[in-house]
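Service request form, structural biology core

Requester: graduate student, group of Dr. S.
Request type: structure prediction, single chain
Budget code: on file
Notes: please return the result as structure tokens.

Sequence provided:
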Amino acid sequence: MKNPSLILLALLLGGCASEYRFTSNLDSEAINEYFKVGDVELYQGDHQPNTSYELKGLVEGQSCQERDNDMPASISDARTKARKAAAELGANGLIVKRCVLFEESSNACITQALCLGQAILTTEPPKN
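Core staff response, request fulfilled:
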């Protein structure tokens, strides 16, 4: 055996040349659904659309704390659900009209957050 390092190098390179396949249990459709809200621009407060748009409909999002050991309802969760509802209407923007956090218990929720807004489709990309 002239050079053991040469044989080791050949074995290592041979391992890299084999066909490697990656399989996953993640569904590409589920991934697209999960990231759909990222395609919806959020407009609220001083940040309003400065381009023309088409109104697609009114949407709402709700966050509810059903049990004592659940996470408390949050406006950010309600807003995200409103963005998802806007995306399902084919919108690329959401003008938030009002978000409210109810900390009094109701029959269904210990705490509850609601966000209402207009789902819009802008004709141009947002200008910053």
